[in-house]
Amino acid sequence: MPDAAVTGRSARKRQAIMAAATALFLRDGYRNTSMDQVAADAAVSKQTVYKQFADKEQLFRDIVLGVTANSEAVITGMTSALRDAGVVSQAELRTVLTDLARRYLDGVLQPRVVALRRLIIAEAERFPDLARTYFEQAPARAIELIADALRTYAERGLLTAGDPRLAAAHFAYLVLAIPQDRAQFYPGERPSAAERDRHAGEAVRIFLAAYGPPSLSP
Amino acid sequence: MPDAAVTGRSARKRQAIMAAATALFLRDGYRNTSMDQVAADAAVSKQTVYKQFADKEQLFRDIVLGVTANSEAVITGMTSALRDAGVVSQAELRTVLTDLARRYLDGVLQPRVVALRRLIIAEAERFPDLARTYFEQAPARAIELIADALRTYAERGLLTAGDPRLAAAHFAYLVLAIPQDRAQFYPGERPSAAERDRHAGEAVRIFLAAYGPPSLSP
Q1: What's the pTM value of the predicted model, to 2 decimals?
Q2: Stretch B81-93: mean pLDDT, rounded?
Q3: pLDDT confidence tier of residue A84, bands split at 50, 70 and 90
Q4: Contact check, Cβ <8 Å, B202/A169
Q5: Do the chains contact at A209 and B210, CB–CB below 8 Å?
Q6: Backbone angles phi, psi at B56, to 5 degrees
Q7: Residues B133-152: what's their mean pLDDT?
């Protein structure tokens, strides 16, 4: 068999193992998931699982870090619109922030993202380094990138944000916290598009009331 | 032995079993905790455990519902100050809300509360009814009581809140979301008193900028 075909088959098996393990970790937790079960659900031999992943811990780490890397890419894409939008008026700022809020909600409320977040929270004592890596590279990274944009808007006189990082954190949690916290306790539920629109709109209204330019603030 | 002494000893054993089980559930998750281990850690016989709790599920339910009832009592006490404070000016409103925010943060960031919240989130798929009960009677109940108070303040012209429940949810998550979300991923950390003061003060500032009376809003 040519090398490329071997690599392709190997990559497909790796994907199948990671998908099966993710489903099992989410359903049964880390400790109750066995490599035997992962192999059976992925329809590969146990040897194949161990060829790809040294042990269950390595498998768990690779899954969490894969999701983290994916979140990071999504966040970078989402926030690049903030820098490139050439915002120079209050109306444009409101439009850009509302659009960001709406996409941010869609990303964070994906059932897979909610499920993995619950898994990482559940295992945060067993794997504190993974919980930290996820937190730093997903939610905290998004806040940093938003802070960069807010700093620019403040320099243009569109916002008053003495502490852009704190302002960005307030923006992020105004947008996300209500539906995200609910989703943690009701994993099967998801707000409708109309509800997500309303959350996004209200979050931006509150944010601009509190962080608008000096002339508009009380 | 007189009846009261038997009752007292029985209640103490029940407390010891619940304390041991809570620690084990938090450390090992629901599925990995055995009744044998609970009995050993509580220093009682297995028969005593089964006399008090029909099975492991009953034990888990009683622990979560006990914490829920306790949270409810704390919330009722905390928010009763809102109604009794006789707030008639903006300055008084700011003081009352800042005090509420500060106490709310202290309550929610207690290590035991954070740990139980993580446990309920982890087991939300296994016990959806318990997750719902906790959510309705702890965070959602707090928001309802805050909404009642905001409605009164709006009637006195101190706030503009067309939807007092949404305003209350924004207040709650402005206060809590930043440190609470972090606590889920860093269970061993806790913000200092100065950091909690700052969170509370900033949350109230933003809330009043967005929901202040018509004359103060942009």
Answers
A1: 0.89
A2: 81
A3: low
A4: no
A5: yes
A6: -65, -35
A7: 93
A135 close to B (CB below 8 A):
yes
Contact assignment for B205 to A209 by CB distance below 8 Å: no
User: A38-44 long-range contacts, Cβ below 8 Å, gap at least 24?
Assistant: A42/A13, A42/A16, A42/A17, A43/A16, A44/A13, A44/A16, A44/A17
* Nearest chain B CA: its distance from A15 CA (Å): 25
- Residue A76 pLDDT exceeds 60: yes
As a whole number of angstroms, the distance between CA A74 and CA A145 comes to 12
Using a CB-CB cut-off of 8 Å, the residues of chain A touching B188 are: 128
Q: Is the pLDDT of residue A215 over 70?
A: no
Crossing angle of helices A164-185 and A193-211, in 10° steps, is: 150
Q: In A9-144, where do the E strands start and end?
A: none
Q: Is A46 on the interface with B (CB under 8 A)?
A: no
Give A180 to chain B, closest Cα distance, Å. 10
Q: Which one, of B169, B146, B18, lies nearest residue B80 by Cα?
A: B146
Contact (CB<8Å) A128/B182: no
pLDDT confidence of A37, banded at 50, 70, 90?
Answer: very high
Cβ contact, residue pair A139, B181, below 8 Å: yes
Q: Please, are residues A150 and A212 in contact by the beta-carbon 8 Å criterion?
A: no
pLDDT at A10: 87
Q: How far is CA B191 from CA A117, B108, B117, B182, B197, in A?
A: 22, 12, 18, 10, 10
What is the token pair recorded at A43?
């329809």
Task: State the average pLDDT over residues B62-85.
Answer: 81
Output the pLDDT for position B49.
Answer: 95
ipTM of the complex: 0.88
* Mean pLDDT of the residues in chain B: 89
Nearest to B32 among A31, A202, A210 (CB): A31
Report the amino acid identity of residue A95: T
